Amino acid sequence: MSKIDEIRAEMMKAMKNKEKDRKETLSMLLAALKNKAIDKRADLTPEEEYEVIKKEIKQTKETMDLAPADRTDIIDQCKARLAVLFEFAPEEMSEEAIRAVIKEVMEALGIMEPSAKDKGKIMKELMPRVKGKADGSLVNKLVGEILA
Questions:
Q1: Do both 74 and 99 map to the same domain?
Q2: pTM to 2 decimals?
Q3: Nearest-5° angle of CA 119, CA 130, CA 63?
Q4: Do the Cβ atoms of 89 and 54 come closer than 8 Å?
Q5: pLDDT value at position 121?
Q6: CA 95 to CA 120: how far, in whole Å?
Q7: Which pLDDT value is given to residue 10?
Q8: What pLDDT score was predicted for residue 145?
Q9: Which regions of the chain are under pLDDT 50?
Q10: Hey, how many other C-beta atoms are within 10 angstroms of the C-beta on 60?
Q11: Among 137, 53, 139, which residue's Cα sits nearest to residue 97?
């Protein structure tokens, strides 16, 4: 079952239960997934579906961060929207799991004493392994800590 079908089924449930905010969020997510599929002119892979979901989460977080503090209605709406979006987001890797993958990459590259010069090589090998499973900024931060 694709994410589109899963989200459509959840949206129907939300409509039957008269959950307006949940239905709107699912409708927005469904539209984003369909638009991506139309742009691609083919069905989306699970990785591509997760990319769309993560993009929606990122945009909602940015909206929440940019909202003035006195606009609690916008902040509350974003929090509710994020709660729904996280139901469909892929499970993120923990810091420990990311560190383990970094160590594997360093061993595979034969880097025993990492220096700042090795960061590019490490990231080049590391990012395809964690793409879609871990936040890129977190991965970058952890690699920087290991190289420091």
A1: no
A2: 0.71
A3: 95
A4: yes
A5: 86
A6: 20
A7: 93
A8: 86
A9: none
A10: 20
A11: 139
HSE, side-chain direction, 13 A CA sphere, residue 112: 0
CB 93 within 8 A of CB 117: no
Q: Judge whether 100 and 121 are in contact, CB under 8 Å.
A: no
Amino acid at 72: T
DSSP labels, 95-124: HHHHHHHHHHHHHHHT-SS--GGGHHHHHH
Count CB neighbours of 29 within 10 A.
Answer: 23
Is residue 105 located within the same domain as residue 70?
no
Domain that holds residue 102: 95-147
Same domain? For 127 and 68 the reply is no
Report the alpha-carbon distance of residue 35 to residue 139 in Å, rounded.
29
Return d(Cα 131, Cα 101) in angstroms, integer: 12
Q: Which residues contact 106 (CB under 8 A, 6 or more apart)?
A: 112, 114, 118, 122, 146
- The pLDDT value recorded for residue 14 is 94
